[in-house]
Write a structure and sequence with these properties.
Radius of gyration: 21 Å
Order of helices and strands: HEHHEEEHEHHEHEHEHEEEHEH
Structural class: alpha/beta
Distance between the termini: 13 Å
Strand order of the largest sheet: 7-2-1-8-9-12
Length: 344
């Protein structure tokens, strides 16, 4: 494990600030020389880190969908531990992949998309069931239909598909992760850590945008909640290229927000792809369970128990639940290079 660099300030993880790129790049180069950090291209064991939606909208108090967890500050603590993990293991992480939940105003899960019989929009955190749509309790806003060409037939098809596949009902979320807005950006401290890793290892962060299609939710980075429209045309194809890339690593570490939604959905989709290829690939997946938290809205919803059960089921399928503070060479079945094995 390498030490924390001098610029890291754990007290600023809940803040939004400008990353001083030029100064940080110089520090990263000095750090690389001091600690003998090599280029990622020379790695004999390739380790990927997948960060799911570590954005202000989910991770900073006061933002639209802050993942407070039961502690009330869960995502802030997750981000701090994540930064420490990246710095302590900067020489072992070959490449970092960061997904960005990406939305605009008129999307199926935002209030403006729907109206009741009196023309009123549903408030955030309204669950929209198939029965609600079939009975006319909620319908597509005529202004949205005119602007996007998405009508009531799609809404009924959408909710029917969710019900048939046993997924969460359509949820009206607060406007969040708005493209071009500050909520869409990575947490500043995490962005800082990713940039530092870029320079220290000569490894470019790979960014993946998801969730921008107006007619579907997109919890998983790999595919939307409903993949086809009523005519059977694909809304968004499965991101098979990303699956191939992630499964090419000797070990893939996964973290992000929220544990109960985008993280679980992404890992479940990855598991389905693993089962279609080689079930032993599940042993390459490491879930940082102390760097992710579930959605909890006091008095409304609490997905903690459900998320914990899901992670246990993933562990039973061969994946590993690990903690960021543990040396990665001590993780179960971790493919450490020969030199690290000798140190153990």
């Amino acid at each position: 494990m390498t030490p924390l660099p001098t610029h890291f300030d754990a007290g600023r993880v809940a803040e939004i600030f400008r990353v001083p790129y030029l100064e940080l790049a110089a520090e990263a180069r000095r750090y690389r020389e001091t600690h003998g950090i090599t280029k990622a291209s020379t790695d004999t064991v390739r380790v990927g880190l997948l960060l799911i939606d570590v954005q202000n909208t989910f991770s900073i108090p006061g933002f639209e969908l802050f993942v407070a967890g039961r502690s009330g500050m869960a995502a802030v603590h997750d981000s701090e531990r994540l930064c420490r993990f990246i710095y302590h293991n900067v020489g072992a992480l070959t490449r970092i992949h960061a997904t960005l939940d990406t939305h605009t105003a008129m999307q199926i899960f935002h209030s403006v998309f729907l109206v009741d019989r009196d023309g009123h929009h549903p408030p955030p955190m309204t669950e929209v069931t198939l029965a609600d749509v079939e009975t006319g309790r909620w319908r597509v806003n005529p202004d949205v239909e005119e602007a996007l060409g998405v009508g009531q037939d799609h809404l009924e098809h959408y909710c029917r598909s969710l019900t048939r596949e046993g997924k969460f009902s359509l949820m009206v979320w607060p406007y969040h992760a708005m493209l071009g807005g500050v909520g869409h950006a990575l947490v500043s401290s995490v962005e800082e850590a990713l940039f530092f890793h870029n320079i220290a290892r000569s490894s470019q962060t790979a960014f993946e945008l998801k969730g921008d299609h107006p007619a579907t939710e997109n919890y998983s980075v790999f595919r939307p909640e409903v993949e086809d429209d009523i005519a059977g045309r694909p809304l968004r194809p499965m991101n098979g290229g990303l699956v191939d890339t992630l499964l090419s690593y000797d070990a893939l570490v996964i973290s992000g927000q929220a544990k109960s939604h985008c993280v679980s959905w992404t890992v479940l989709d990855l598991l389905a792809q693993i089962r279609a290829r080689d079930e032993t690939l599940a042993e390459r997946i490491y879930l940082l369970e102390d760097c992710t938290s579930p959605v909890v809205v006091p008095g409304v919803v609490d997905f903690t128990d459900q998320a914990d059960r899901q992670f246990k089921e993933l562990e039973a399928c061969g994946m590993h639940l690990v903690r960021s503070s543990e040396p990665i060479e001590s993780w179960p079945a971790f493919p450490v290079p020969a030199l690290a094995r000798e140190r153990r």
